[in-house]
Amino acid sequence: MSEAPPARADGRKRPALRLERVERHYGTGASRLTVLDGADLEVFPGELVALVAPSGAGKSTLLHIAGLLERPDGGEVHIVGRAAGRLSDADRTAIRRVQIGFVYQFHHLLPEFSALENVVMPQLIRGLARPLAAQRGMQLLGYMRVKDRADHRPSEMSGGEQQRVAIARAVANGPRLLLADEPTGNLDPNTAHLVFDGLVRLVRASKLAALIATHNHDLAARMDRRITLEQGKVVEF
Fold first, then answer.
1. In which band, very low, low, confident or very high, does the pLDDT at 190 lie, cut at 50, 70 and 90?
2. Which of 24, 135, 196, 212 has the fewest beta carbons under 10 Å from its own?
3. How far, in Å, CA of 109 to CA of 116, rounded?
4. Distance CA 160, CA 90 (A)
């Protein structure tokens, strides 16, 4: 599992994600739409933060900016203490590859590969030797309680099993930050809770910082904090 980010000089842990006065606008002139307007947020290692907001409020935009997939129009994005909002595309890609894991509503597993191979793949791309990648892959599948499905292809697994494999793949390279966009939105309630339980175990064991967008208020209530977006700003509730 990844090491925790270093402590700050005052003894507190450094946030894995810090958004500072982030702004994002679309369009120009009279058609300009402000989605984020001075949004501030910190997410710390080992913490699960639920992002709950209605459709169109800017959840996806916030996640894309936090994940360095979009650039903010103003403000700054700090990933493990590094200002990343204005870095080159190559540097932003390097940070995403190492520091950030993504989980989406649909698992996007590679259908021609087994569960273990799907988890091993990003590690091989990063340069890890196959035996070590396979060892870590099996460990992660064990955390997500799908180790017995390691040799199965996605088509041979249930939706919940596939999503648990997708979560294992997202953290395969030991990121410090996990961003999830409706990770249980395509699952029935019982399966959603099973997947979420696995996600919580992994976050706690890895000291990951997790920002999870969800419409599921039951799951949101089980996280450490809940935030929403109001008039382009992050508000805790």
1. confident
2. 135
3. 11
4. 34
Give the pLDDT confidence of 170-185 residue by residue, as tens digits.
999 999 999 999 888 8
Report in angstroms the alpha-carbon separations of 45 from 4, 90, 125, 164, 234: 7, 25, 25, 21, 19
Neighbours of 173 (CB within 10 A): 19
- C-alpha pair distances (Å), 1 with each of 4, 45, 115: 9, 13, 19
Q: Cα dist. 39→86, 96, 205 in Å?
A: 17, 21, 29
- Is the pTM for the entire model greater than 0.85? yes
DSSP 14: P
Give, in order, the Cα–Cα distances in Å from 106 to each of 28, 33, 162, 185, 228. Answer: 33, 28, 9, 9, 23
Alpha carbon 122 to its chain's center: 15
Encoding tokens for residue 58? 């800017």
Nearest Cα neighbor of 20 from 90, 108, 110, 83 is: 83
Query: Comparing C-alpha atoms, which of 95, 69, 77 is closest to residue 39?
Result: 77
CA atoms within 13 A on the CB side of 166: 26
Question: Is pLDDT above 80 for 30?
Answer: no
Q: How far is the C-alpha of 237 from the C-alpha of 51, rounded, in Å?
A: 10
Task: Please state, in angstroms and as integers, the Cα–Cα distance from residue 230 to each residue in 40, 42, 71, 72, 199, following that order.
Answer: 12, 17, 20, 18, 27
What confidence tens digit (pLDDT) does each residue in 36-65 have? 999 999 999 999 999 998 888 889 999 999
